[in-house]
Amino acid sequence: MESTQPTPSVDLIRRVQRGDPDAQRELIVAYQHRIAGFVYAVVGRSDAIEDITQLVFIKLVRAIAGLQKPEQFESWLFRLARNTCIDHLRRQKLRRIFTPFAPEHENVPEPAGAVGSEELDALRHALEQLRPQDRALLALVQEGRSHAEIAVTLRSTVAAVKARLHRAREHLREHYQAHHEN
Amino acid sequence: MKTEDQVWTELRRHASAQLRPGFADRVLRAARAGAEAAPSLLGIFSLSAATAIICLAVVSLYRSANQNPVERDDIVAGWEKIAADSDEFAAK
């Protein structure tokens, strides 16, 4: 697991809240790769990464003035990212109901070997079998978030996070091994 | 064979490679454009109120222009009868 990355200073967050464009750019550059990785883990489509990541940061720029505790910025940002990904998947599901034959609304999985190693294929396949909420949970752990921070992000309790995480890891391992052995 | 953490790192690397150069600038441009294009609450309310007033005016103009005088007399007579019946009922 990746170690916890340095969090932005409260001063930087306050400058972003005041609408300083240089601070906004600095904050986006600091987080864009982490959010892109998170988005890919939850949504599972390479072609959606840039659009959804962009949407997350647009929401950040518009809503950050309302963030009361700048020290909880990361939990807030990952909650924003998680909700944006889940909304995207929900909308995609609805679109498939109303226009089932439009090719852009089909959630065709990326073909095996299209994006990386055999192991990455197995991980992507295993993630696809989980609920989006569980994918987000696992991606938060991989981001180095502690159980307490994840509980803040999900507005849940540490005990509930631990229980869900245990189940999600078991399911992931099951599907990962099954795919990898095949 | 790679460990699970190594595979996650590969996944993140693949994802971050999908962001084209100039990503932050595009986000800021889009955020600004969206903020300028978004109407204010007062604007939305004023537009809704103006639409409602125009619709009511059109409906009442249409009705007054198209109502047949005979039909109007019938309606008035009907109301007069109801009023008379009510008075009679109240007097009993």
Structure write-up:
The complex is a heterodimer of chains A (182) and B (92). Chain A has 182 residues and is mostly helical. Chain A has eight helices and no strands. The longest helix of chain A is centred in the middle third of the chain and has 26 residues. Chain A starts with 9 loop residues before the first helix and ends with a helix. The mean pLDDT of chain A is 87. By secondary structure, chain B is mainly alpha-helical. Chain B is 84% helix and 0% strand. Chain B contains four helices and no strands. The interface between A and B is medium-sized, with 34 and 27 residues.
Tags for this model:
heterodimer, A: 182 residues, mainly alpha, B: 92 residues, 4 helices, elongated
Instruction: Report the major sheet of chain A.
Output: none
**Alpha carbon gap, first and last residue of chain A:** 26 Å
Instruction: Give the integer mean of the pLDDT values of chain B.
Output: 87
* Major sheet summary line of chain B: none
Helices and strands of chain A, in order, run as: HHHHHHHH
Helix-strand makeup class of chain B: mainly alpha
Question: How would you describe the shape of chain B?
Answer: elongated
Rg of chain B, Cα atoms, Å: 34 Å
Distance between the termini of chain B: 101 Å
The average pLDDT score of chain A comes to: 87
Q: Largest interface, by Cβ-Cβ below 8 angstroms: which chains and how many residues each?
A: A-B, 34 and 27 residues
User: Helicity of chain B, in percent?
Assistant: over 70%
Low-confidence stretches of chain A: none
